[in-house]
């Protein structure tokens, strides 16, 4: 079991004049054997943070550590595997799926020799509930859900310690999303993997996560044990997400759309507002306050994540003011 730590990580794209900071000084820990669910609207920087761990996004400050070792020093970064929204991006369309999975296996060890590799491919296909006979098929011959299972098998072939799953059910037909999610939950438990699970859909995140982290404009605005974040959200953005999410009583995969689609102002990462980045939107929400100077002028500290439940808000946890209620 392994721990993944993002330490003050920033990712900047573009030039100084026309660039944007997609991830801004984020600290987040994925503890051994646990699932951290990362939620937030489109453009908040979730994918960029994830990609920074596997070398697909340029880390401009801070570092990512796996069990204390900077991931840049891990050979091939194999212990960290990522599964993407679109399985086509990790599967070569011309390669049979057995070969794709085999290619991702480490050299040496128990999987040297064609026979051992074939057996390992069959084992991995069974692990993701696919018939080993499918090893000879091409990705196009499979359904979207089956392709995502193959992408998971391929990630597991690398014998990872940590898996990063980025919107892995979002592109799938609603009817198969639940099955893929259940599979991920079961396989993760079985293998004792640590996982960073990204989704814009809070209902999906809460189904799987031990810890929930909420991202807004390149920052973690709230993080903590899942049940605490859900039952006692401290940041107004988390409250906004929760009020937009379907309740426990509605089906998990009812399409909720992107959480940013509410009536609020869209956030623009090229021009983050001064003070608290959320303040222009917060004025619309239940925490609107008469005296908001502090929010307009002063950036609330993102603490380094040592407290189990943290929120970057000057008025974290304060109840809504009566005059601030939504019209
Ligand atoms: N390669 C890139 N070059 C320039 N800007 C980028 C690049 N990748 C992402 N961005 C920008 O960084 C910001 C964060 O994007 P990111 O994809 O990480 O957000 P996200 O929360 O994962 O959203 P989504 O769910 O839509 O992918 C966005 O403004 C995006 O346009």
Automatic annotation (TrEMBL):
Positions of region (Disordered): 250-273, 295-327
A Gene Ontology BP annotation from the UniProt entry: peptide transport
Stated family: Belongs to the ABC transporter superfamily.
Residues of the ABC transporter domain: 4-242
Pfam families documented for this protein: ABC_tran, oligo_HPY
One of the record's GO molecular function terms: ATP binding
PROSITE patterns in alphabetical order: ABC_TRANSPORTER_1 (PS00211), ABC_TRANSPORTER_2 (PS50893)
Keyword Chaperone: no
Keyword annotations: ATP-binding, Nucleotide-binding, Transport
Organism annotation: Streptomyces kanamyceticus
UniProt keyword annotation of Zinc present: no
Protein's UniProt name: ABC transporter ATP-binding protein
């Amino acid at each position: 079991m392994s721990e993944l730590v993002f330490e003050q990580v920033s990712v900047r794209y573009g030039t100084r004049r026309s660039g944007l900071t997609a991830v801004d000084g984020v600290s987040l820990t994925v503890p051994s054997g646990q699932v951290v669910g990362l939620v937030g609207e489109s453009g908040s920087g979730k994918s960029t943070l994830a990609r920074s761990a596997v070398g697909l996004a340029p880390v401009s400050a801070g570092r990512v550590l796996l069990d204390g070792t900077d991931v840049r020093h891990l050979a091939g970064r194999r212990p960290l595997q990522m599964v993407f929204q679109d399985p086509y991006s990790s599967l070569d369309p011309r390669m049979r799926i057995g070969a794709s999975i085999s290619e991702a296996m480490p050299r040496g060890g128990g999987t040297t020799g064609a026979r051992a590799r074939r057996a390992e491919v069959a084992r991995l296909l069974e692990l993701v509930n696919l018939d080993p006979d499918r090893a000879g098929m091409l990705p196009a011959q499979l359904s979207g859900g089956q392709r995502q299972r193959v992408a998971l098998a391929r990630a597991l072939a690398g014998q990872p310690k940590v898996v990063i799953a980025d919107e892995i059910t979002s592109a799938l037909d609603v009817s198969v999303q639940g099955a893929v999610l259940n599979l991920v939950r079961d396989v993760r438990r079985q293998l004792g993997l640590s996982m960073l699970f990204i989704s814009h859909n809070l209902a999906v995140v809460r189904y799987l996560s031990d810890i929930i982290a909420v991202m807004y404009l390149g920052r973690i605005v709230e993080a903590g044990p899942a049940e605490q974040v859900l039952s006692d959200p401290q940041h107004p953005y988390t409250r906004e997400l929760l009020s937009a999410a379907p309740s426990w009583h509605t089906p998990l995969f009812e399409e909720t759309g992107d959480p940013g689609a509410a009536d609020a102002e869209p956030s623009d990462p090229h021009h983050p507002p001064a003070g608290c980045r959320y303040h222009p939107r917060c004025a619309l929400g239940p925490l609107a306050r008469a005296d908001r100077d502090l929010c307009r002028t002063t950036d609330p500290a993102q603490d380094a994540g040592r407290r189990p439940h943290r929120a970057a808000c000057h008025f974290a946890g304060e109840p809504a003011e009566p005059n601030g209620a939504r019209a």
